[in-house]
Amino acid sequence: MKKISFALFLSLSACLVYGGGYRVSLQGVRQAALGAQGVAMHHDASVAFFNPAALAFVESKVSIAVGGFGVGIKSSYQNQQTLQTAETKNPLGTPLYFAASYKPTKNLAVGVSVTTPFGSTIDWGNEWAGRYIIDRIALKSFFIQPTVAYSFNDWFSLGGGVIIARGDVNIRKSISFGSKDIGFEIDKKGAKGTGMNLGVFIKPSETLNIGASYRSEITMKAEEGDVIFKDVPAIASTKLPFTAKNFNSTLPLPAEFLIGANYQVTPKLMLGLEIGTVQWSAYKDLKVELYNGADVYNSEPSDKNYDNTVNYSFGAEYLATRNLAVRLGYKYDESPSPSDSFNPETPTVNYHAFTGGFGLNFNQFTIDAMAEYIYGEERSFNNTQYNFGGDIMSRGFVFGLGLSYNLNY
Predict the structure, then answer these.
(1) Distance between CA atoms of 94 and 12, rounded to whole angstroms?
(2) What are the tens digits of pLDDT across the range 218-249?
(3) Measured distance CA(42)–CA(404) in Å, rounded
(4) Beta strands in 254-345 (DSSP E)
(5) Which pLDDT belongs to residue 13?
(6) 357-376 mean pLDDT
(7) What does the alpha-carbon distance between residue 403 and residue 257 come to, in Å, rounded to a whole number?
(8) Is the peptide bond before 241 cis (omega within 30 degrees of 0)?
(9) Which residues neighbour 109 within 8 Å (Cβ) at sequence distance 6 or greater?
(10) In whole angstroms, what separates CA 325 from the centre of its chain?
(11) What is the DSSP letter of 126?
(12) How far apart are CA 102 and CA 90, in angstroms?
């Protein structure tokens, strides 16, 4: 039997629709309001995800931060030659985060963060032109990161954390078999991987913070996942791949390096800049093994050929009153996917994010809120592996609400 190509996307990712590739930066509401920058900030425990070294400069003995976001993104497809069009019907995504830190001494900080940096749903439906690549994908993930940080003096600290990644994935697509479409679905709960996060934090003066962090590549392993076929013709029902019950696959979550600075221009005005690079070149292709006991079917790899990317963001925070801070930001995130292997399972385009928000301080408690408009540049693609092309664009919004508690010495 001729091999059937299964374009499976097993990432535990929400950046299906936001950010280059499948990476999204929504792990702190204050950070998100400033253009998703956080590597040079040290206001509460949520900084552990962005830069573990910053925990040592959190001024509170105990810090707790919790928050969540609503993400609404739509992607549209059109083919100028065939006049075919499609639009995703995605439900609202809800990334969450929780972080806590404790300083047993003035110089030592320990903490843990729980974030959902990858997890959302994209639904093209089962009648559009690209249904043989993807119908629907639903993903959930958690990063659990225990962290330790130490400040050697009043201007320099180092920190590190272990990342324990867990996630679930459900993917549906159609398979063309003669004049008939066969339904194909995979489901896996408990995909896993591990990595690390290292950082350095420097305070050359009372008005300047500089931070840098490195997050290692994480190889997510999906093993013994479930495979479901629907409407298989009798002539094929006793042969692989249609007899497969399980699947194995791996996916790299790429390494990332961030560097940034915050400068207190006046007692009321702070400006920030952050630059990051993501090592997307680790994602060359996706291989999936389907099996039923000892019978194994290795599907044709789905080519990705991602390129490394650079992103940057700007942010400003103004203390309007003693208790009210107003924030604005901007972030640019480029797509790592070349046009000849672009895949609508991850409709990644170059994104411009325009952000704003505010923070209200009530002694030990702070309430943060933010909103964001996401503008994705329209792009043309022609996937040579699947002979599928057209134009695609994405637009959307994000809103977030967070609460932090800081107990001082």
Answers:
(1) 14
(2) 988 989 999 999 999 988 889 888 999 999 98
(3) 13
(4) 256-264, 269-278, 285-286, 288-292, 295-298, 302-303, 309-319, 324-333
(5) 35
(6) 95
(7) 27
(8) yes
(9) 55, 56, 58, 101, 102, 103, 147, 148, 149, 150, 159
(10) 27
(11) S
(12) 39
Q: Which residues contact 34 (CB under 8 A, 6 or more apart)?
A: 272, 313, 315, 316, 317, 327, 328, 329, 355
The DSSP H or E segment spanning 4 is: none
Please enumerate in sequence order all residues whose Cβ is within 8 A of that of 391, keeping only pairs 6 or more positions apart, or say none: 77, 78, 79, 80, 378, 379, 380, 381
- pLDDT exceeds 50 at position 7: no
The predicted pLDDT at position 81 comes to 87
Q: Among 28-37, 100-109, 336-345, 378-387, which is the least confidently predicted range?
A: 336-345
Question: What are the structure tokens assigned to 379, written together?
Answer: 């792009």
| First-to-last C-alpha distance (Å) of the chain | 71
For residue 74, the cross-strand partners are 395
As a whole number of angstroms, the distance between CA 345 and CA 30 comes to: 30
Q: What are phi and psi of 377, to 5 degrees?
A: -65, 140
Across all residues in the chain, what is the average pLDDT?
88
**DSSP run (H or E) holding 30:** helix 29-33
In the three-class reduction of DSSP (H, G, I as helix; E, B as strand; rest coil), residue 57 is classed as: helix
CA proximity to 331, closest of 368, 373, 369 = 373
Residue 303 contacts residue 345 (beta carbons within 8 Å): no
DSSP 8-class letter at 52: G
* Cα gap 296→226, rounded to integer Å: 14
Residue 31's SS3 state is: helix
Check whether 21 has a pLDDT greater than 70: no
Question: What SS3 state is found at 48?
Answer: helix
- Asked if residue 6 has pLDDT above 70, the reply is no
Nearest to 192 by CA among 172, 162, 168, 216: 168
What are the backbone dihedrals phi and psi of residue 29, each rounded to the nearest 5 degrees, phi first?
-70, -45
**Banded pLDDT at 8 (limits 50, 70, 90):** very low
Q: What's the pLDDT score for residue 10?
A: 36
Closest CA to 137 of 274, 11, 266, 304: 11
What pLDDT, on the 0 to 100 scale, is given for residue 297?
Answer: 86
Is the predicted pLDDT of residue 346 greater than 60, yes or no? yes
Task: Give the pTM.
Answer: 0.87
DSSP string, 176-231: EETTEEEEEEEEEEEEEEEEEEEEEEEEEETTEEEEEEEE--EEEEEEEEEEEEES
